[in-house]
Specification:
single chain; 166 residues; mainly beta; 8-stranded antiparallel beta sheet; 1 helix; 49% strand; elongated
Length: 166
Amino acid sequence: MKCCHMKSTVALLALMSLPALAWANPPPTRLQPGLWQFHYQSTTEMEGHVIPAIHQSVRKCIKDTNPAKLPLMPKLPANIKCTAPTLQSSHKGYHVAIACTASEPNGMVTQMNEAFVIAPSNSGSQITIDGTVHQRITGSPVPIPPVLVKISATGQRVGMCKAAKS
């Protein structure tokens, strides 16, 4: 059970690192402002074993339609530090690579090397994100093998944002 809990924790760390993409400058797109629904799926592979996929969904009111500033996941915890991303534009959208380090009070350190392809639709009402996160944990009392997390996400505009209450 401890092993599966560790794998789920590692996958969650990878999903939480998605906001780091907000530092990138994307190519011009026509994303529509409004209420967006994002769906995430991640699979984790460790020593040739795959754990069942983790699914998460979130709805967000998007006012800034720059796809690099979409609030895809909760804000990164203070213990996760990331390098400035490298960005390459392509006909699909853009490719972002980034490295992050998460330091825990117990001395464990997680190194994450991430690569994502972010592709907004031509209509501006959808966006897809596909990527991988390679993770290595050091400082654990027992050796933890490297982990590969595959993440895919889709976002779709589902309507107008509700007016803020006065």
